[in-house]
Design goal:
Layout: E1 15-18, H1 26-35, E2 42-46, H2 51-60, E3 64-67, H3 72-95, E4 109-112, E5 115-118, E6 123-126, E7 129-132, H4 135-146, E8 151-153, H5 154-160, H6 173-184, E9 194-197, E10 201-204
Length: 211
């Protein structure tokens, strides 16, 4: 639900957001939407198509990012895909909330060490609190969980989560990892689940050794 200038609340299925806006850029708008717990799918549409800008868009809370120039059918396809992806996630969970996914399939609900990630509803539940995730946060967690206890390179995250194949400063991913640690770690400064493998990437550990 968004609040336009006339003060009347309206529901939207998705938001197409330009970055170059008067007074406040699209990165700030997306960040404020997420801070206000508004999780409407956001597609950023902009002339700033460098990989660094794409990652900044995702970090601010965007779910997809389309550089200009573009063809209208491509924009419509990306929007339809964004909405379909979210619907599939929710329908999969609604069909059988208690079902355990097959080993070859993405997780719908994953529990570890007193925490539960509901990918269908884009929620993380921990210590009685519910944290809403963006699609990109959920997809990054899903990718790490699929590779539980194995090293995941930054390059793998760029290519398999964000679909970026260009050379870029992969350290931009660190901003996402910092945020996820705030969600899932008891002490983000001393992570036990989302570990950094220096010079390579990250390793997710569902059940760390307490000894």
């Amino acid at each position: 639900m968004l609040l336009p200038r006339d003060g009347k609340q309206q529901n939207f299925d998705a938001v197409v957001l330009d970055i170059m806006l008067p007074g406040k850029d699209g990165f700030a708008v997306a960040s404020e939407l997420r801070a206000a717990r508004n999780f409407v799918p956001v597609l950023m549409l902009t002339a700033r198509g460098r990989p660094e800008d794409v990652l900044k868009g995702f970090a601010s809370g965007a779910d997809d990012y389309l550089p200009k120039p573009f063809e209208l059918p491509i924009l419509l396809a990306r929007l339809q895909g964004l909405l379909r992806r979210r619907d599939w996630m929710r329908e999969s969970q609604a069909a059988d909330p208690a079902a355990q996914p097959a080993a070859s399939e993405p997780y719908d609900v994953f529990s570890f060490h007193g925490r539960t990630i509901d990918f269908g509803n884009l929620e993380l539940r921990v210590n009685g609190n519910t944290i809403h995730l963006t699609l990109m946060e959920a997809e990054l967690l899903r990718h790490l969980i699929r590779n539980n206890d194995h090293i995941v390179s930054r390059k793998s995250i760029l290519e398999e989560v964000w679909g970026l194949h260009e050379d870029t400063d992969t350290r931009a991913i660190d901003n996402f990892i910092v945020r996820l640690r705030r969600y899932i770690e008891d002490n983000p400064a001393k992570p036990r689940h989302l570990l950094t493998v220096r010079g390579v990437g990250y390793r997710f550990v569902a059940e760390p050794d307490d000894n």
